[in-house]
Design brief:
The protein is of the alpha/beta class. 40% of the residues lie in helices and 19% in strands. It folds into four domains: 1-35; 51-174, Glutaredoxin (3-Layer(aba) Sandwich), CATH 3.40.30; 180-308 and 346-381 and 407-427 and 445-500, Rossmann fold, CATH 3.40.50; 519-556 and 566-634. It has helices spanning 3-34, 51-58, 79-98, 115-123, 162-174, 192-198, 210-218, 248-259, 297-301, 388-391, 395-400, 441-445, 467-470, 488-500, 503-506, 519-556, 567-634, and strands at 64-70, 103-108, 127-129, 135-144, 147-151, 180-185, 220-223, 237-241, 263-267, 305-306, 310-314, 318-322, 328-337, 355-358, 363-364, 371-378, 383-387, 410-417, 454-459, 471-476, 479-484.
Length: 635
Amino acid sequence: MSKTSKSTKLFLFSALGVLAMGALLVAVNLLAGLFHGRLDLTENRLFTLSPGTAAVLQKMDTPVTVRFYYSRDNAQMPVALKAYAQRIEDLLGQYRSRSGGKVNVQLLNPAPDSDAEDAARLDGVAGQPLPNGDVVYLGVAISCLDQTVALPVLSPDRESLLEYDLTRAIYRVLHPEKPVLGLMSSLPISGQQQQMFMMPNAGGAEPPWTLYSELKNSFAVTEIPVTADSIPANVNVLLLIHPRDLSGPTLYALDQFVLRGGRLLAFLDPQCWTESKGGNPMSSGMRAPPGPSTLGTLLAAWGVAFDTEKIVADVGTMLQVQGRDGNPERMPALLGLRRENVDAGDPALATLDSVMVAFGGAFTGNGAPGLKKTVLLSSSKESQMIEKFLAQMGGEAIMRDFKPDGQQRALAIRLAGTFKTAFPDGRPAGDTPNTGDKAKPAAAAGLKASAKPTSVVLVGDVDLIADPFCVRVQNLMGQKVLTPLNDNLDLALNLAEQLAGDDNLLGIRGRAAAVRPFTVVARLQANAERQYQEQIRQLEDNLAKAQQELSDLQQQKSGDQKFILSPDQQNAIAKFKQTEAESRRQLKLVRKQFRQEIDALETRVKWANIALVPVIVGLFGLVVAIIKKRRSVAR
């Protein structure tokens, strides 16, 4: 066979191979489009529904309609919102696909004075005003039968929680009844009625806590005495506040509640100031020293510990209060937690910016086998455990011998998984259930392990949910107005609502944002901005100096010369104009130079992403071809 025929044959085989590869790629894309398949290679699988969402969708037995309101045709729609709208639309397509069609997605364009705009208003989806006066819509309404839950405004700021918000809304329309929440507290959280029942030695009427009022808006609240030896069967979530000196039967009831799959949210405290009259650590005349609360043997069985003899002091997050002498006083035991102290990946905490912890304690231990421990709130590394009596002596006493040890303390934790009983020998001796019903033999023996995975959230401070530490009460024209001081109430309500939802909702965590800016580009922009601001300051200084010079010359003139420009003034004005023009020219030059650098970098990054991989593949193929040709010649 001649060399020419060999080359022709090689060319034909290569051409056929390229055509076959192209046909294969087209076929794969067609099949993927037909079956809505996709390959998600992003770091955090941003474009794949989490297992928790998939489980919620698979359990659906009633169709759900999702109406997505998006001002698609409005030319003034911000670019960031357009990109986010596409992200939402893609995600809703996955909901429709994974639900087998039970999630019906309707895309609506609420143009001005349209039926879609009227529908948006009826669904509770709010329009967002633009600077030019236009109103744009980006929201979702989810309905099932006669129930509707609206997400009025979908903001890119909550992109990490988008899947959680959508899945929770779907769950809420499928389960419209209020969940039952059990409330067990040794403090008068529900007001005078509980105060007389729980604290007979305390006098005076007290209104319900703000937390209690808010809970009743979202839950069917069932109050349970702290002496109870059983938890009602219809309670799935139990809020336990300041459990002091719980008896064996009550601890056993809590143990069995968790083992049967109940969720527990417990606020413990090594030094609860709210228990004292007024709940103010700076006030005098307290009825009794603040006492501790804990769960004793339950914590040991769960593999964690809570020190009731020491509190957390932290100079990295400490707040200032008005001292006894009226001057500001630093209080290392009053912590103002910020975003870096909060588990932002947990949907219940992701939006919290400020949490105040007052004389709280810390949890230690990694959790028992079968349990996963997650730290929800933590101190900074500038913290130390101190004796409780120091808190009563003021901030200066704490600061005097303060020595941070570089450790972050766990102020609130979540334990999730399979729990083991703290009473392996059964109900404590001599204790019998006081349920009014005959106990079944299996129930009398007690559960030894969780029937299913469940969750327990432990918070090391009670004061943070008491009104003096979380809201400001004002009287406005005879009406009581409450103003939040921080995000403490949101913390408690979000955790309770999260625990009351489907098990799978607990497994949906916040995701990273889909839009990831180039850090090098962002750094260049920041540098340019700093230089730009520096130029502005320099220009303003020059203008101020020139104006001051003019003012000085004016004061030197006599009254009859006030409106006549002297030669010195004329020279000063000419100098001022020249300085102004030169400063503005330099400012324009700097902005142009840095804009060019940023544009050039973006262009290089873009071409690297577009062309680099094909070039590498082409070079690799060329090298392989050269090697094969040399081997062929050598033969």
